Amino acid sequence: MKKSPLFQFAWFPDFKQALTELSSIVMDKPEDWDYKGNPTGGFPILYNYVHHTFAKLECEQKILIENDYAIFNTGLVTNNQEEVYCYFQKNKNPNTNIPWYFIGWRKASDRDLMKFKKLPEIANYFTNPLDLIYDTRLDLRINVDHIIQDNITRFPPPVNTMDSYQLGILIQGTINDAKRRIKRNYKTAIPQYYNGKLQLLLPLCLVSKSKADLALVVEKENDIYRASTILTLDMAINNARLIAKPDDEWLKP
Known about the structure:
Radius of gyration: 20 Å
Number of strands: 10
Structural class: alpha+beta
Shape: elongated
Distance between the termini: 29 Å
């Protein structure tokens, strides 16, 4: 299996321990970096976050290298709003082609970072802030057949045993509920970043009106929204957390 860009860049003696340390440093220590639907007892959301953040920063050429040291901005902060960086030194092991070695996580004020004249910026996932907000005035076109046929295993019981016609009606109704909810609170539509695209996630409350079961993925093209797939909430939080910790309760980790 091909290594991730981060593991091609640097050697981590114990990445699991590194994530444990990072989770203890960053803001909102009660934030649960584990999945809700299928908890692992670890930090799968944080694991995904760090790997995808590095890949994005590498594309944006925001990995800062000075002499024998390198850093990148994790995009996370402490309770005092200090930015947290991932800190490396050149790998001195002659038996590997991995160029860097992980030293640890460092706050912006840490003496180790004084060797860098300017600290690197966070990853950028959007150019127009309006793309983060669902515009209820625009048309939403839903490929219901594709959503059902390609994603039936993601639907919870007893919904997953309904025939396609009944399930299609239920989906349309829950989407209308979600749009009404967005009109009351724009934060209901949560931005996610996937495959180089900014998309929005809408809650689908299929079994109970008080709890989201799935997330509808909505993408804007030529001032028209299009929806053709759904995600489990575990999948959705992985993508959404890259941009920010979701404010709305339906997708909070």
